Amino acid sequence: MLTSTQHKLITGILPKGKGIDVLIKLKDEKSIITANVDSARGMGRLTPEAHRGIGEQSEKEILNVVVSAEHADAIFEYIYEIAEINKPHGGLIYMTRLQRATAYVLPDLPDEG
User: Fold this and answer.
1) CB-based contacts of 16: which residues, under 8 Å, 6+ apart?
2) pLDDT digit string (tens) for 15-27?
3) In the chain, where does DSSP find H-type helix?
4) What CA–CA distance (Å, rounded) separates 67 from 22?
5) What is the residue extent of each domain of the chain?
6) Could you give the count of Cα atoms lying within 13 Å of 53 in the half-sphere of its Cβ?
7) Is this structure's pTM higher than 0.70?
8) Cβ of 27: how many Cβ atoms within 10 Å?
9) Regarding the domain delimited by 7-98, which CATH topology (the fold level of the hierarchy) does it fall under?
């Protein structure tokens, strides 16, 4: 089912090991469950020629978060702070408008016990 509100996609390219921590904080502190973390590797455009071998690729984590346009700026700033993007080699973050988004709801599960 498509939602009727506007949404934005926040994407962060983070150092390896940061993505899951951010994902957990988004769920626990902001109740955001529309997020995902993937792994990636590669090298920068400015990587010196001597360091461009297969073994020299750096691993990154790609964080994708879908949020309502209304809350996008606040969540963007929150991710920027908790992911420490402002520190050297902290990664980068950007936001784009989504044409459409599908509602995502977790099912109610019975208590275990």
Assistant:
1) 39, 58, 59, 60, 61
2) 999 999 999 999 9
3) 19-30, 72-82
4) 15
5) 7-98
6) 4
7) yes
8) 13
9) Alpha-Beta Plaits (3.30.70)
C-alpha to C-alpha distances, 100 to 12, 20, 70, 103, nearest whole angstrom: 20, 26, 15, 10
Q: Which DSSP helix (H) or strand (E) runs through 33? A: none
User: pLDDT digits over 78-112, tens only?
Assistant: 999 999 999 988 999 999 999 887 877 777 888 88
How far from 105 is each of 33, 44, 80, CA to CA, in Å?
Answer: 8, 37, 26
In whole angstroms, what is the distance from residue 8 CA to residue 103 CA?
13
DSSP characters over 40-67: EEE--TT--GGG-SGGGPEEEEEEEEEE
Q: Which residue has the tokens 């529309």?
A: 34
Would you give the DSSP letter of residue 17? T
